[in-house]
Amino acid sequence: MTETGNLYADLSGFYDLFCAEVNYAEQCAFTKRVFDAFSASGGQQYLDLACGTGAHIQIMQSLGFTSTGLDNSAHMLEQAASRCPEAKFILSDMSSFQGNEQYDLISCFLYSIHYSHPVSNLKRTLKRTFDALKPGGVFVFNTVDIDGINNCHFVSTQVNTTSSRLTFVSGWSYAGQGEVMDLHLSITQERADTHETTDNTMPRVWRDRHTMTAVNIEHLSRWLIETGYEVTLLEHDYSSLQAWSQNSFNIIVVASKPQ
After folding, report:
1. Which spans in 137-229 are helix H?
2. Residue among 79, 84, 35, 93 at smallest CA distance from 57
3. Alpha carbon 246 to chain centroid, angstroms
4. Three-state SS at 136
5. Domain contains 7
6. pTM given for the model
7. Are 235 and 156 members of one domain?
8. How far apart are CA 168 and CA 6, in angstroms?
9. Are residues 26 and 134 in the same domain?
10. In what order do the strands lie in the sheet with 66-71?
11. pLDDT tens digit string along 32-42?
12. pLDDT, tens digit, for every residue of 222-240?
């Protein structure tokens, strides 16, 4: 049986299993190093955009940050609030969040900045983050240049629960021109027991597609500078703060708000 819909809502309870290979601790340690190196705002108020189930927030709290998470999925935020009951959460799209809070550090990982679509929304997201930062604050996120999108590269993860086996597949596709790229997602749920069964609901397959914004680094850097940011581009290496060599397509962006 094949179903369509929002996988992040339908299977939010399994999200952490699918992301088991993501090294959240390494990403958060890197974020703390970026903060120590670039921030001059004097506080530790932290906002994570597209926070999902709150894995980054949980670790950043252990590093001393007072944390807030933002996501457009109520189902994801339910998981995050259960994991981090002392944190604040905002149900909103990245391009339209509002509030009186001012942050010292804002992050957006797992390439989620590309969810701001179309380009006009991406520019609005950059403006929202700039306005939400204190002077001297830092916005850090990762991105992929359109020239580096490999339409043949799909990532597959398989996890087992007590009753079923789940296979999660994701991958980008890009037509080669324009500002649109697509994130394709699918999940297949099969019985863990391979013996015959009268359960006609297995296997179940969910398919979903998210339209995302394709950008190149030159344009993105220009939009950040036009917004008011000072921009530093780093290699996509969470083990060190290494300047971008301009030979790779996955980049970490550090955008600092001047004092």
Report:
1. 217-227
2. 84
3. 23
4. strand
5. no
6. 0.88
7. no
8. 14
9. yes
10. 88-91, 66-71, 45-49, 103-108, 133-144, 250-256, 230-235
11. 999 999 999 99
12. 999 999 999 999 999 999 9
